[in-house]
Structures are given as structure tokens and as C-alpha cells.
Amino acid sequence: MRIGLFLPERTQNTNLNLIHEREIEKIKEHIKHYKIDLIVFPECYIEHNNLEELKNKTLKITEKLHAETGANIAIGAGLKEKVSKSEKQKTTEYLLVLSSGKDHWYQKHAYTYRSAIDNKDWENKWKKYLLCTKIDKTKIGFSLCYDMYLPFIAAEYKEKAHLYVNPSFGNVKYNKWAAMLQGRAVENGFYTTCVLHHFKDRKGSKGYAFAYDPYGNPIRLEKCSDEKKYTPYKTGGQQGIFFFDIDPQLAEEAKELLREAPYSWGKAPVYDDDYKFPILGANKDKLIVKITKDKVEISGEWISSTESMKTINDLSVRVLETKQLFKPGIATNLGLKKTGSHYLFISFNEKPFKDKEILLLY
Questions:
Q1: DSSP E strands: which ranges in 137-180?
Q2: Residue 233 φ then ψ, to 5°
Q3: Which residues have C-beta within 8 Å of that of residue 320, sequence separation ≥ 6?
């Protein structure tokens, strides 16, 4: 199966209504020529201040593109909330996935004005707010941006997906996004991918296209316009469609290895990295993390669910309640206000996950 990632170039004053039509025409040509099965757009590719009109507009563009190319589509849609002039713009994010002729809507969970977690039935019916589809023989799970920081989403897709798609907006640090996507790949045995907007007039807003195999290795992506191959890091700031092929059987093999030895992935180094990551932890000491059913060991220090906070060197570890962990923004604020710049959150939870005990780390 061939996956295409569209990395658009923007300025802060880009008129999206004018540029969409031109972009879509070019995208159609590339989808047909390179035989792309699923084309992924960034988060908030389409935006509007009315939810009904936003969904109608997004669906119209998506259905037309599908009708003319036959491709499956995942496209971000952002609802711009009405705010006063003194307030910062608030957005609620959605993802429309059109696969096998059917449309599916996903609502973002973290760092959005209105979250899926805010829905009254989320706690008891949270699985219905996740989205996993099947295209031919490939099973695909979806989320948006910071949702990949919530491990229960990827964990739910572990046995259901060969590919995890997580479009994001922009203004992210490459090493953070790469590390998270690689981590989700190796711990769940599936491919991971993401694409961003590139804002050429905004500092720190270089866009990238990411793709990793089920063992966490960066995939060389081809670019439609020049047919050269790029590592995820080398896609930075380059507008266009990048694409790669996935093999569901490779994901199945990785999952089987995880079933046989659940912690084996921690011993298997990524053999082909495209970015030199800084060593995490205080004084550049390497952090060694071990996980058991009810405890976590970090560099020889054990942390249990009965503790609220522990300091290891100058790394502050906080144990959060479920509501604190899931509510967008709370965990970050606690970390910044009470623990300093180096912090790690842990939560030991059984509810609302009644069928399993899950330990969440991010």
C-alpha cells in the first residue's frame, strides 16, 4: 500500500480559500501518476468558524478528490471558535477520513478548545471516539497531533492497526515528534507517519513529513516532483507530496515478536536513524526505565502509585490522577509551575479502561 503525505507551504497571511483549489489540482495529478492509495493532509488544512459549514466544505473537497482519483483521504479540519479581540484564537480540531467510499470523523483529544474527552459519554464509551479503518488488507488507526502523547490511543490500535497516522499542524520540534513517532512504532509494532504545515515566515515552524517502520527505523520517502529519496529530517521545509510503501506483513511479524517477548523492543536498537537525539536527563545522564505491573524504576529509583512526586537528580517525576492526566493542558501546567523544566508524568489507572490495567507515561 502506498501512503502520500502532503506538506503544504504557508505564510501567516495565506488565503486558504484561493490556494486550496490550486493545490488540489496538482495533488490529483500526483496521486494518479504515482498511484497513491492514501493521501494524508496536515491538521487544520481546512478551517471555518461554523461547524456545519466546515464539515460540508471538507466533505465536498474530499469526495471530489476521491471521485477523480480513487484515493483514500485523511484531511484535517479546524473549527475556529469566536473569541474577543483580546483573546487568543481557540480551535477545535477534527480529522475526516474517507476510506473505501465511507466518511469517518475523528475529534482530537488533547490541546484543543473542545476535546473528545469533554463529551459526556467519553468515559464509558471512549472507544467509539477512536478511529480505525481498513483499506484492502491494511488496517489503519488515526489521531491528531498531541494525541500521540496519550498512550492509550496507540495501545488501543496495537492489535488493530498496521499503520498509525497522526497528522499535526506545525511549530513543533523535530526531535520531539520523531522520538514520539519512533516510540509508538516500536512499542506497538506498527508503522507510524505524520505530516505538518511549513510556515516560511514564522520562526521555528519548519514543516516535515515523518515515516517509521514497525521497528522504529526512519523510512526513506520519495518526493513526487523529483523522485529523490529523503529521510524524515531532510524533508524539512520542502513543499510537496512525499510517499512511501508499507507492508502489513512486516507489522504482523513485529507484533508477533512483541507477543513473544513484550519488553524485547527495549533491547533492539534502531539501526538506521536520521537524527542525533540529545541524551535525556539531568547532567546528560542516561535514564534507564524499567516497567512492572504496579511500579516504575528510573535509574535505580522505584516509583509506586502511592507516591505523588519524586526527584531523581534534577528530574521531577509526578504521579497524576486520571482526570489530571487526560484534561488538556493540566499536566503541562503542573509540570511548568511545580516541577521545573525537566519533568515526567506517570499515571497508574484502571478506570475507564475496565478490560485492562494500563500504565501511562509521557
A1: 138-142, 163-165
A2: -65, -35
A3: 331, 334, 345, 346, 347
> Which among 124, 190, 181 is positioned nearest to 159, based on CA atoms?
190
Minimal CA–CA distance to 276: which of 172, 175, 148, 154?
175
Convert 231-281 into a string of H (helix), E (strand) and C (coil): CCHHHCCCCEEEEEECCHHHHHHHHHHHHHCCCHHHHCCCCCCCCCCCCCC
Chain centroid, CA 57 distance in Å: 24
Instruction: Name the burial class of residue 348, with classes exposed (0-12), middle (13-18) and buried (19+) by CB atoms within 10 angstroms of its CB.
Output: buried
In this predicted structure, which of 75-89, 114-128, 264-278 has the lowest mean pLDDT?
Answer: 264-278
162-200 pLDDT per residue, tens: 999 999 998 888 888 998 999 899 889 999 999 999 988
3-state secondary structure of 93: strand
pLDDT digits (tens, 9 = 90+) for 73-91: 999 999 988 777 777 778 8
Helix and strand totals (H; E) in the chain = 7, 23
All cell numbers assigned to 192:
507510524
Q: How many CA atoms lie within 13 A of 247 on its CB side?
A: 7
**Grid cell of 157 as nine digits:** 490500535
Residue 247: φ, ψ to 5°: -120, 105
Q: How many angstroms from the chain centroid is the CA of residue 302?
A: 30
**What are the beta bridge partners of residue 40?**
5, 74
Q: Output DSSP code: residue 227.
A: -
Q: What is the CA radius of gyration of the chain?
A: 20
CA distances from residue 263 to 86, 195, 258 in whole angstroms, order as listed: 50, 29, 7
Residue 28's Cβ-count burial label (10 Å; 0-12, 13-18, 19+) is middle
- Residue 207 three-state SS: coil
pTM, full prediction: 0.79
Beta-carbon count within 10 A of 169 CB: 22
Within 8 A by CB and 6+ apart from 43, the residues are 76, 78, 93, 95, 108, 144, 145, 167, 168, 169
Determine the Cα–Cα distance for residues 46 and 157; give it in Å rounded to an integer: 26
- Bridge partners of 1? none
d(CA 139, CA 136): 8
User: How far does Cα 257 stand from its chain's mean position?
Assistant: 24
- Grid cell digits, residue 35: 498511484
